[in-house]
Amino acid sequence: MNTKEVCKMLDATIKTLIVYEEYGIVVPKREENNYRNYSEDDVLKLRTVKLLKELGFSLKDIKSLMEKNNYATTQFMRSLYLQLKAVETKMNELDHVKNTLVTSIDKMLDSSKAVDQDSFLRDMDTILKENKDNRRIWVDMWGFDNKAIKFDKMVRDSERDELGLFEKYDEILSEIRTRIRNHKAMSIIDIGCGTGNLCGELSADIDVVGIDQSLEMIVQAKKKYGDMKFRLGNFLDKPYRNKDVDIVVTTYAFHSLNEEEKKEAIDNMLEYIKEDGKIIIVDFMFLNDFEKEERKKEYYEKGRQDLWEVVDYKYYTNLEKLENYIHRLGCKMKKEHVVNFTWIVEIQN
Description:
Layout: H1 3-10, H2 14-22, E1 29-30, E2 36-37, H3 40-54, H4 59-68, H5 75-110, H6 117-141, H7 148-154, H8 169-182, E3 187-191, E4 207-212, H9 215-224, E5 229-232, E6 245-251, H10 259-272, E7 273-286, H11 289-301, H12 305-313, E8 317-318, H13 319-328, E9 332-339, E10 342-348
Parallel strand pairs: 3-4, 3-6, 4-5, 6-7, 7-8
Antiparallel strand pairs: 1-2, 7-10, 9-10
């Protein structure tokens, strides 16, 4: 496609395309007559660049993002995913600005004194700087979501798993699959499905939908399990189905949620399941705060504060608090300790 055709399609100027080319963001091939020939991939990149530019990203940041987004086999999907995450980032920035403005106006309305305009302007400068710093971090981290390729090996590498977080990994998944079969489940939603290790082999006979917030995990799962369906999302997304799922299951993902988010996630999962349905959670947990403190002491006495920091970095579930919340909802909960920090929890109406 020549330059004029691309300009017309994207409502862009020739000067704009030349600038992108000079920055090395989109560099089309040249024909023998030295005319530019834009490929479909080039046009796709230009569409992505156009959105990122309209969202306020600098050409330097756009170049960095585009270089990290070069996945030949899933280029179109990756481009849409990049655009989605860029929009979410911008929305978060605008929310911060909006909240600061609302707070500032409320303070002014509540105050009977003369307004210190400089303090409010400093507040806004602080927010704008924080937004800029957070965007910088996001740009730098984009493309690091590729642990999916190594995930299957990582969870089985006992030498590097000093905490034993994934000890008995395959046995536990096998046990959960047995429980799913015994429940005679015909529909499953697997939240935080990763690369599909739990439910992939069930998907030939059972309706399985895997949900994960990592596109890379889903891409790897799709390669392994063609019968499995997928959605991009997480625990806190509102259910897209209502009371028609036999089992909602999640393995090794629940600890990413803080205490309040865990409650919201449970509420959402309950919305999915039938009256006789079941929620199964496999994750890292403590029986209560006392057990957590005791485990902390153990690691500190061994001089392994570094290992404890790995544990404390995430939100391992407090089972007593979780059980209290489940009972307040009028539901039943069973818990079973498996190994190290890993427990299995089942929740039913």
